[in-house]
Amino acid sequence: MTSTDDDALFKALADPTRRALLDALFEVDGQTLGGLCAQHPQLTRFGVAKHLAVLEAAGLVVTLRVGREKRHHLNPVPITAIAARWVGKFAQPYAEALVELKSDLERGAASASATTTASDSAAATTASASAATTAATASIALTASLPPTQESS
User: Residues with Cβ < 8 Å from 58, sequence gap 6 or more?
Assistant: First the structure.
């Protein structure tokens, strides 16, 4: 990937509306413009079309004409290429473990906050801080155990 390709990719991913469109295509691939507009009523049809054009220019969305319809498909290759470049093959299992740990902690924090009352909010705050400290310690330990990366010349 060239620097220009990277810029277009990160520009496309920077907007929360475009990320929401990518999430919608991840859920149901091959949607039409009308289907995506129905999922995002806060946007005009023109707005959704412009966002899709940016995603298509970045290579994140591929379109296919089926009769009169234009179907939009998610293309994971550019994101995978970025991940492969910045997350080395040795760091991949560690990074996946950290993502899973983060998800588990967020699910635990969400369920804890749903059941927490005003009287025990201090205990929940302490538990959340403890969990965050544990996650940070695990992250540092995993990072420290990674082999040194080799820079290409």
Answer: 5, 8, 9, 11, 12, 13, 78
Q: Say yes or no to pLDDT of 52 above 50.
A: yes
> What does the alpha-carbon distance between residue 24 and residue 33 come to, in Å, rounded to a whole number?
12
72-75-79 Cα angle (round to 5): 140
User: Residue 136 belongs to what domain range?
Assistant: 89-145
Same domain, 27 and 74: yes
Structural domain count, the chain: 2
Q: Are 83 and 6 in contact (CB under 8 A)?
A: no
DSSP helix/strand/coil, 62: strand
What does pTM read for this prediction? Answer: 0.61
